[in-house]
Amino acid sequence: MVELIEAIVKPIVDYPEEVSVTETEENHRILLTLSVHKDDMGKVIGKQGRIAKAIRTVVYAAAGSQQQKKTVLEIVD
Description:
The longest helix is centred in the C-terminal third of the chain and has 17 residues, at 50-66. By secondary structure, this protein is an alpha+beta fold. Helix content is 39%, strand content 26%. The chain has one domain (2-76): GMP Synthetase, Chain A, domain 3, CATH 3.30.300.20. The chain has helices spanning 2-9, 41-45, 50-66; strands spanning 20-25, 29-35, 70-76. The relative contact order is 0.24. It is found in: Cytoplasm.
């Protein structure tokens, strides 16, 4: 899942070397935290959150077929 998120996000940002994704497994969910450079935050979120929503949709679709735990994607700077 980490590689999928990186493959989606790195081409759209100005600082791809600062893109990092961490995966934390909790009781009933898997938390994926996407960290980007503060100047790239707008590019990752997009107008009215459309790009962030699209990224989440792809990640949730890929995770839904593989795992039984709920997957959550959090975007931070």
